[in-house]
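Hey,

Quick one before I head out. I ran the complex with S-adenosylmethionine overnight. Inputs first:
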Amino acid sequence: MTVSEREYYDPATTNYWLPIDEIEQDRLDEIHFALKDLYDGNVLTKTHCLLRKGMKILDVGCGPATWLLDMAMSFQKCEFTGVDLSKDMFPNIKPNNVELVIADVLQGLPFEDGTFDFVHMRLLCRAFKKDEWETVFRELLRVTKPGGYIESLESDIRGETKLSKIFIDLSEQHDQNPRIAIHIGEILTKLGANIIQTDERSVNLGNNDILAAKFLSMIKHSIESLIPFIRPYLDLKEGDDPSSAIQELLDELKASEQKSVFIAYLAQKPE
Ligand SMILES: C[S@@+](CC[C@H](N)C(=O)[O-])C[C@H]1O[C@@H](n2cnc3c(N)ncnc32)[C@H](O)[C@@H]1O
C-alpha cells in the first residue's frame, strides 16, 4: 500500500513496518556496506573460517539480496538461496549460484529438514513480534544440517535521545522488542544450539570519521523511510517538510555521542 508516496506492506498481512520500494533497496545497500566496514567483512571471523566450497547457504529475509550477491561473488563454489516475504525487493539480475524464493519464515520455510550448511539472518527486528523469535530460530535450526551453523545480526536500540525513544515507542506499538539483540544468544541456547561467537560492535555517532558519517547517513535514510509513522512525534502535519526536524534528531545523536549498536551471534546446531 502507498503512504506518502512510499510503498509498505498491508499491515493486515505482516507486522513488518519498513517500506518495500526502490528507495528502501538503496537504504539496505547502504546499510550492507556500513555493516561490512563495522564487522570487517560479511560474516563473523569464525564463520569465515568455516565456509567451504560446495556449501549450501540460506539468507532469511534477504530483501534486495545485497549480502547474498556480495557473498556469492566471494564464494563462487557455494550455492546461495535467499527468501523474502515478497519479490518486490529482489534484484533483477543475479549470478547462477543464487536462487531467490518467496516465503514467510513465520509460516515455515519451503525446505526439507537439514538442507543448509549455513543459515544467515540479519536486520529482521522490525519484522517479528516479541514472542515470534523462538519460532523463527526453531525454523532456522530445522533447515540447518546437524553440525551446521546459524549467524544472526541485529541492532540494539539504546540511549535516551529523542530518536531512540521514538524507535522504542514504535517497536512497542508493534509488539516488538527493540532490544531483542541482547536475547538472541539465550534463545538459540534454549533451542539447543551452541553459541560459538558473540560480537557486539558499535559506532560512536559523535565521532568525526567516515564510519560515523556512514551510519548517520543510514540513520537519516531510516528516519525518512518512517516519516508517516514518525510525523506525530515531530509535530509535523501531512505535507510539512520534515528536513529541519530530521536534522535536529541527527544533531542530538552527534552532540550526545549516541552509539549505534549491533550484536552478531554464530551458533552451531548439534550433530
Ligand atoms: C530490513 S530488511 C533486511 C534485508 C536484508 N536482511 C539485509 O540485511 O539487507 C528486512 C527484510 O525482511 C523481510 N521480511 C520481513 N518479514 C519476513 C518474514 N516473515 N519472512 C521472510 N522475510 C521477511 C522484509 O520483506 C525485508 O525485505
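The pocket of S-adenosylmethionine is lined by residues 14, 16, 18, 20, 28, 32, 61-63, 66-67, 83-86, 89, 104-106, 122-124, 127 (CB under 6 Å).

Talk tomorrow,
K.
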